[in-house]
Amino acid sequence: MADPPASSPSSSPPTSATRRRQARADATRLALIEAAVHEFAAHGFEGASTRAIATRAGTHQPQINYHFESKDELWRAAVDHVFAKLDAALAAHQIEGLGADEITRDRLADAIRAIVRAVAQLPELNRIMIQEATADSDRLAWIVERHTRGRYDLLAEAWGSLRRRRLVADIDETVVYYALIGASTLAYVNAPEARRLLGDHAIDDAFVEAHADGLVTMFLGPEPAAGGASAD
Amino acid sequence: MADPPASSPSSSPPTSATRRRQARADATRLALIEAAVHEFAAHGFEGASTRAIATRAGTHQPQINYHFESKDELWRAAVDHVFAKLDAALAAHQIEGLGADEITRDRLADAIRAIVRAVAQLPELNRIMIQEATADSDRLAWIVERHTRGRYDLLAEAWGSLRRRRLVADIDETVVYYALIGASTLAYVNAPEARRLLGDHAIDDAFVEAHADGLVTMFLGPEPAAGGASAD
DNA sequence: GTCTATAATTAGATAGAC
DNA sequence: GTCTATCTAATTATAGAC
Fold first, then answer.
1. What is the spatial distance between Cα A177 and Cα B126, in angstroms, rounded to a whole number?
2. Would you call A44 and B44 a contact, using CB atoms and an 8 Å cutoff?
3. What is the residue extent of each domain of chain A?
4. Could you tell me the CA-to-CA distances from A127 to A43, B134, B176 in Å, in that order?
5. Which residues of chain A neighbour B215 with C-beta distances below 8 Å?
6. Integer CA distances (angstroms), B34 to B22, B55, B60, in order
7. CATH superfamily entry for domain B15-68
């Protein structure tokens, strides 16, 4: 979405030297984005300094204003980057998404497991989300319209469909949305706290699997009701 | 815990004037703490400025260093303040706590409802907690040992007791802790986002009650199993 | 105790050499 | 494109009048 700064201003043919320069520039840009993800997640937008980001990226602070218009634009590029990684992780953890076909209890169970595994390996995304969601701002408006609303609608429709068919508990979609996101992300968002509270190795792969199973039980019940449910 | 600056340096008897001065000072101190709660919750420790806190408190920025040693000490006073409010809110919403006697399913259900109602009216506490928990720091160490660990132990013991007696699903205490805190707090922590996503009045009293009921259903099941459960 | 003025540091952004 | 040097504005904390 953010255009890279124009690197071929006129019609000069791409020589080997300019191609190497471009590759170096792309590497710098990516390193800045990944460093920004880490720093914004840890300290919030205002708490993260562009100097710390540049140092983590192995470059110098003015590079941020060269490759991005401003700290704000770097933040947007970082957010787009982690959401792209989320979609990749979700795709890796489940064959079909929520929206593909008529939702079933088992499909939602698979989706919940996929969400838990994905957010476990991508804690920065939900750290950034929550840092921004605590106060209204232009950044919050941007992130809600660009990344949040579509995902909310998908989950709300899936839950609503199951709820109307009595395949899940009679709980409001808005309640389920925040309960599921909160219940699935907090242990990873708060991993530094969890390490102090529970020990260094408390949030490991076994925890993630127990967490996924636990949330499926909590949100979908121990077992699908045999027989009695009738469609709307 | 933090001693107020000594206001009676020698043995001068308290005149009406000095008593009025002291009352004014106490009011300034409290106004600073409450403004600090708001600003730290909205912007995090590093993102909140002492000028903004002083302005919100209706006083001037150097008052912070007079009434508190530093921004850091003000933060600690603010955290103690919101945890005291949490305890008051929890006490108002339930007769007995988790630790009073042998835990029962109904007692835990009451506790969950009390937690939801309390965190709904005190979103600043969980905003501050989550802002700090995303990165390790001296502040995180302080808050975990001073405020978090005891509450974690209480809930983990209660759940473990019910779990051993097969009165709740067989889910690990650590999973339940983060799932419950996340599921109960996120809608209020993220209220600015929820307003953009769902509309201005989505997180109202009816939501809180539906939320409380929904979490009881999710964590404790729709109904206690009649008969079959045997104690350990 | 509360105020104004200011010191010392650090922030994001820019200029210009190479 | 990347670097060094630096500008302007904002930060926390302190000094000193009242």
1. 18
2. yes
3. 15-68, 75-220
4. 9, 7, 20
5. 179
6. 18, 12, 15
7. Homeodomain-like (1.10.10.60)
Residue B133 neighbours by CB distance under 10 Å: 26
pLDDT tens digits for B1-37?
Answer: 444 444 444 445 567 788 888 888 889 999 999 999 9
Q: Which residue of A has its CA nearest to B150?
A: A197
Closest CB from B41, B175, B198 relative to A134 = B41
- Over residues A65-102, the pLDDT tens digits come to 999 999 999 999 999 999 999 999 999 887 666 765 78
The residue in chain B having the minimum alpha-carbon distance to the alpha carbon of residue A153 is B197
CATH code, A75-220: 1.10.357.10
Residues of A in contact with B108 (CB under 8 A): none
* Kind and range of the H or E run holding B67: helix B62-67
- Angstrom distance (rounded) from CA B84 to CA A31: 44
pTM: 0.92
What tokens does A194 get? 């969890």
d(CA B81, CA A85): 39
